[in-house]
Hints:
globular, 9 helices, 8 strands
Amino acid sequence: MNKINIAVDGPAAAGKSTIAKLVAAELGMVYVDTGAMYRAITLAHLTQPDADFETLVQNIDLKIINDNGQRIYLNNEDVSERIRENDITQNVSFVASQKAVREKLVALQQAMTAAKGVVMDGRDIGTHVIPDAELKIYMIASVKERAERRLLDNQQRGIEANFDDLVKDIERRDQIDMTREISPLMKAQDAIEIDTTGMTINEVKEEIIRLANNIIR
Length: 217
């Protein structure tokens, strides 16, 4: 059986993390949520707003632990739940656009994929982090459906949210992610696009597994 890397890219709330996690579990691969890494740096930035980004990333300890689900540790503190709160969501696209932040995290992400067997999701995985990934998926969905998914996710986490505000925030994040100077969100030329609007989680998962098995076998 061939070991491969799978890159899953797409805009905010397209379902990347949920699907990538399920695909990794079914295929016996390691799941890496790069968005959580950028969220952790965002938390550090909000905690130390006066620090420039180069200094900030040099002085933090970021660990990704895969043990019954991915956990994110920032300076030895488990911040996996904290980084999902609204203030992080509202600022993560700005922080992720900073050169020093991307350089540090891309280096960490590439090290994680060196031995293959990784399902990694984010904004620039197939185009920049692992451009040689054997399978590249680009997931999209309508803004309305993405906002509905984010609203449900927030409700399940006990985070207060308003649907109209979520629509505006997703549109704003799309604009920032797609127009940033460094590694903007875009579909890799060899990526397979999946529009998840109206699809169930299982339907999307099964389609990606089918594509992966065609390569693995």
